[in-house]
Amino acid sequence: xxxxxxxxxxxxxxxxxxxxxSTPAILGMAVNGLYNFVDALFVGLAAEEIAIGALxxxxxxxxxxxxxxxxxxxxxxxxxxxxFGRKDRGTMTxxxxxxxxxxxxxxxxxTVFGLxxxxxxxxxxxxxxxxxxxxxxxxGIILLGVIPMSLQMxxxxxxxxxxxxxxxxxxxxxxxxxNILIDPIFIFEEINIFNLFTITGLGLGVKGAAIATVISxxxxxxxxxxxxxxxxxxxxxxxxxxxxxxxxxLKEILIIGGPTLIRNTIWAFLAIIIYQLxxxxxxxxxxxxISIYGVINRVFFFIFLPGYGVVQGLVPIVGYNFGAKKPExxxxxxxxxxxIVVIYFxxxxxFVQVFAPAxxxxxxxxxxxxxxxxxxxxxxxxxxxxxxxxxxxILGAVYxxxxxxxxxxxxxxSRQLLLFIPIVLIFTPIFGIGAIxxxxxxxxxxxxxxxxxxxxxxxxxxxxxx
Length: 466
Fold this sequence. Notes:
The structure is a single chain. By secondary structure, this protein is an all-alpha fold. It has one domain. 83% of the residues lie in helices and 2% in strands. The chain has helices at 3-11, 14-46, 49-86, 89-116, 118-124, 132-142, 146-161, 165-187, 206-228, 247-281, 286-323, 327-363, 369-382, 386-402, 405-431, 434-465, and strands spanning 190-193, 197-200. Helix 2 packs antiparallel against helix 11, helix 3 (49-86) packs parallel to helix 11 and helix 4 (89-116) runs antiparallel to helix 7 (146-161). The longest helix is centred in the N-terminal third of the chain and has 38 residues, at 49-86. It is globular.
């Protein structure tokens, strides 16, 4: 057992430790968010605003892929962290290998199923006559990269759990950074570099964006996989006996990671509901409203993924110290992380209020007035709930790190399934699609407030539960 990593997680000042483990995740997620932002921006500039809707329509499938990978990665990392705290080498080895094998099988199934039922899925997700061809081009290629993308996400979580957050950061930045660099080459026919010289591109449009993404995912996975195989890693990956799965460990991964699966799958289900409501209640071509929501989603990830990086640093600290029975360290790091995340999300709200018009103007190649003005109003409305959403995110992560799957599940479903969906289905038919944007902030404010009080209660109960 690597004593320096145990010393780091168990005895190092928790505030400094959170910054140390979170910073790589924040940087990695910032670059990843930038990639999603730039990807949509390039597509909008190369084609038209409607083409951005193709990426939005593919969003539910993307979220389902992420959901399964994070279920395995977060669940497995939680088991690994607590075993690391107990110095239980057998469980550490079992969980890493079981998680990777499970992820490979699920990723392969998603790829085959998605390609076989591609058209049916896009229609289900709300594709219109205006954007379905773009969506087919994009998603048909993205599905080919599911295996490397999901395995990379699983290994990122394990790398953080063993105290090697820098490796996870480099993996994310390598893939996302490469994507940003090669995206314009695959998308545009010509790239003007600062009006100094011109590079000839492949001019593949939406299809080019997807190809660049898959190439980058393969590179990012290759890096982190090679690092996981090194002697410096606590991850003992067995490249033999690929069909050997530890059933008890598998069950624990699924139980702990289940809330993450449900939370992210709900996001996909939520997007489908929103697109269908837009198709039913929009004035004029619904594709433009879907593109507006697509821009909001991409910018949301660009602004707020770094905030989720704090959570990535928090989980291994809480999990390890729970296993090591150190409640005071857990309390201190939860309170500190909550302050950081709430302040960050509040700044995100201010950013949207100020810069929403400029954002939509940037994404509009034709300077479409309706696209810019309506998109600005919708985004500003949605962002009101950001001021309290941090409590929801932190509490769910803490429950998973402590190994409380039922509580984590309740937090996971509260915001979208228990609040957003019933409200939006009731009020959109009455007030039109404007009710969709209002429902976002109402659900965020209610869920955030409830989670704030629950967090205070759980902090008081820590000494009794360890």
